Amino acid sequence: MSYLNALRLHFAGRFQANVSTVNNDPAHFDNAIFKPQYQNMQGPRMVPPNGWFNPQGDAAWRLLGCTVTSAWMPAGAVTASDPVLGYIVADSDTLAPAKLVDLDSEQQMVSEIWGLQVRIADAAGNTLLCADYDPAAFMDIWARASSSSGGDNVAGAMYQSVLSNLQWADVSGSAFLTALKAAASDGLLSIKFNVDGFNLDYTSPDFMTGRIVGSIGPASASEPKQLILGRQFMASPGASGGFFSPLGQVNFFAAVMDAQAGCIYVDLGNALPTTDAGGGMQNLGDLTLSACNPTAVPGYPALGNVSLGTIPASGPGGYATDPDWYTRTAGVVVLPLTAAQVQAAAGHPLLLSDGQSVLISEWSNGLWVRADRFVYRMSPGDSVQIPVYATQFGQPLSGASISFTLDPSQLQPGSGFPYVAPSPPVATPTSALTYNATASTDNNGMAVLTLAVTDPGTPRYFNNGQDYGIDGQVYGIRAAFTEAALNVGPINELNFISLLLWSGFTPADPITWTDLQPIFQQYANLYPVMNRFLNLADYDSVVANAHLLLLAFGLDPANPNAMPVTRDLSPAKRNAILAWLKNPLPGPVPPSTRKAMPAAAEALASGPPPQQGGKVAARARRLVLQSQGESR
User: What are the tens digits of pLDDT across the range 347-364?
Assistant: First the structure.
């Protein structure tokens, strides 16, 4: 079960992601050359670019004005007689807002939501369901609004996770919620939402907000939490640029075939391009879903395939002409199937065409592999078992051999411009990771990557290790089918496991402010919104607030009040801070640190506009390095 089935609701509204952009720049982690001006907003022709477009962000992530736009049961759409159609989907009304955090300044393409509560409430605000969102990262970010120019506002992405710790009030007044509660027998719900149209205009009242459209349905404890076990449509890359741009204009998406019910659920919520940022769907023409005729020639020509149904672009309910289509459906389309169509689709690749050409398809052999959870934080000495699922034509594939290889190609180290220091290295040393090179899938299609880690040292400290820097190291591990001949189609470049491995840390005994000041200094530099409350770099200010800091640093990272909001503080350093806060010894005055910046960094040059200091800038760093490597 998942959100992609007969029992589901859709919701739409806006979200806020008030991230701080100071820590987007790897060079800002060098305490020795950090300047106060880096906490200011970027201006034109500015090198270094200060704190990019939102240096005072507090990392808050909120649901804004989200309402239930439709609900569905096996018998069909819920009618107005069910009050669920007047309900809202909101975040907590008692806790601090959730937090949106990157894994690392050099891996910004897996931003996670931590500490989110999701509620369904009636029109008066009375909570009918309250649940905890399992922290999860976005996936499949792409250049959705191709007609828009520059910056993160062109991007679309999706989040999929589960809701746990379900707390139900009296839902007997809604037949839909009664059915949803009964279906959630494992105490879980599935949630998926798409985000796009992010507003980067600091003069707008909607600054740092965007559009959100999503779905909620039942979930099973025996199934993955962050992926769909279904048909996987794989996009070929188009012209290179900031974000992924699919050749056929349609992004990666999943579908689920229900043979018993005689239908297929197709999720186009993060797959169809928009006319502009947060706007309506582009008109790609009527879209036909087909099963590839096994006698057809390679390339999947549209003629000769078995049509499974058409998604109209215009007319009543047309995806491109109905202004409410996206918010009402969240992009989920249900196509009825005959027995013959079910049989044709069961063992043959599916494709989506516009009547003239194929826009996107499954691999010809129907294979697909991905880790369920794909973002991890680990300390030296930790080990973890990472479930990886393989499917063929939407069904679990047993007995498949899966290989695991290091792949740092999608990490985003700085290119040296417009940054004030050389880029810290990524994915080194590889000796810090030990893992199985291959694994076989079980009857559920699951293989296990067993990963053990040791201390990576401090490869990302500055000035040959003399200056404090970025803690630990970031790595990428990609899963694929071991037999190369089975990997027959386009890959999803973002489909890999991201790992932040913290450096080992052993504080002095006793612990003093001298040992911890570089840590506090860095958070004072990178999270300037804290200056409204205290100066984390100042001993007296920290000691005066020690009782509050003991609480905040002692909370579980999933708690929205946990410090630091960046979730990049290692457990070893957290424990040292907690021990020191109970006995805040000052220690000797640390030696003076370097303050001079490289002369080249002071030179003025034509830098990117302020709105490009986010994901698109991180992607650009990766593309610059790749192009430099190709030219050597």
Answer: 899 999 998 899 999 999
Write out the DSSP string of 4-73.
SSSSEEEEEEEEEEE---GGGSGGGG-GGG--GGGGSPP-TT-SS-TTTT-TT---EEEEEEEEEEEEEE
Model confidence pLDDT, tens digit, residues 294-327: 555 455 444 468 999 999 999 989 999 999 999 9
Taking a C-beta distance cutoff of 8 angstroms, is the pair 429, 457 a contact?
yes
Contacts of 525 (CB under 8 A, 6+ apart): 22, 28, 31, 34, 38, 39, 537
The string of pLDDT tens digits covering residues 194-247 is 999 999 999 999 999 999 999 999 999 999 999 999 999 999 999 877 899 999
What is the secondary structure of 333-384 as a DSSP string? EEEE--HHHHHHHHTS-EEEE-SSSEEEE--TT-EEEEESS-EEEE-TT-EE
Q: Measure the CA–CA gap between 462 and 459, rounded to whole angstroms.
A: 9
- Residue range(s) in the chain whose domain bears CATH number 2.60.40.10: 367-501
Tell me the backbone φ, ψ of residue 347, rounded to 5 degrees. -125, 20
pTM: 0.92
CATH architecture classification, 367-501 = Sandwich (2.60)
Residue 18, C-beta contacts closer than 8 angstroms, at least 6 positions apart: 54, 57, 58, 59, 60, 61, 100, 208
